[in-house]
Target: Carbohydrate ABC transporter membrane protein 1 (CUT1 family)
Amino acid sequence: MAAPTVTAPAAPVRPAPQNPTRDAYRWPARVFVLPGLLIVAVLLYLPFVWTSYLSLTEYNGLGDPEFVGLEKYQAMFADAGFATSLRNTLFWVLGTLVFPVGFGLLIAVLAHGIKGSFWYRVPFLLPYAISGVAVGVIWTFILQSGGALDEALMFLNLPGADLRWLLDAPLNTFVMIAAATWQGAGVNALLFGIGLQSIPKEPIEAARLDGASGWTLFRTMTWPMLTPLTTVVIGLSIVGSLKQFDIIWAMTKGGPGASSETLALTMYKETFVSNDYGFGAAVAVFLTVVTVAASVIYLRRQLADAKGA
Model:
């Protein structure tokens, strides 16, 4: 007869030990963070709350705002000029993602691995040191009617000398995106170059031994390893394109008429040129919501893809 099996009693479950060090530093850490939170609240949140209130009022900068509810938002969405600004802003977002980011990546990949590659990137990086207004002035000299580009095309007997680069829409928006590309591609190339240098060499060498090269090597190995940096670059590009102002103001001031305005220019002109603070505030609130929503949706999608990988 087999002996009965004796089961040892289960060990009592003890609570996880507390970390007195972490608890001791929790409140001091909050005290140190508090000044930064107050600065953010004063410089960002409170102005946004005040702007949101102004968007519900009729106000010309003098006297007291008169509450009108959602009238300014209704007028904004019914305005044909707002639709043009929204279209041009979309052009800027798409153009900034394709050209400055795309050219920056291309420059970084072509220069990567070349001895003294930094000096190949310097000519593309120099325009980034120039202010947006200066970039607009330079490109206005090139693209204005009878400007440097028209003279060069006429001298070389090439087509395009009769084009009104800054006067016809949406051509004026496209050439201003080209100016922004000239300014921004270099810094994107620098960022992508740093990302390429941080990629470990062992997986790349293993892929080369397996026969991968050229586009296949870049698509299957290099590009996935650049994903974290690409997320940052594209996120910054989206936010920057939604707020683009200085180059457009220096080159066309949103004209002729309002044909090249973006949401940022519409906000400025309605507030400080037309003195319609309520309408300008409504555009500002709409632009803020779009910018935050675009950033959050993009980052959440990238983080979800990273977790699923």
Observations:
- The beta strands are 57-58, 66-67.
- The longest strand covers residues 57-58.
- The first helix runs from residue 20 to 54.
- The radius of gyration is 27 Å.
